[in-house]
Amino acid sequence: MSLRPVKAERLIKVLVDVGFKPVRRRGSHVILRHDDGRVTVVPVHGGEEIGRGLLLRILRDAGLTREDFLRLLRE
Fold first, then answer.
1. Range of the structural domain that residue 56 is part of
2. Does the predicted model carry a pTM greater than 0.90?
């Protein structure tokens, strides 16, 4: 399965499932932090999906591999 654009709400849910917590929201961006110090920002723009490039950047910031993310997305 290839990496496809995903809704911001779905991405945030997956990140929360792996231990990230939303710490604040600034405008249309949600900042999430993990207990070990990893931080990532997810833009939430109504009805839009997060493209593959930005999604890969967020996954890299979160320390998740493409395969891990796809597995979590299916669960």
1. 6-74
2. yes
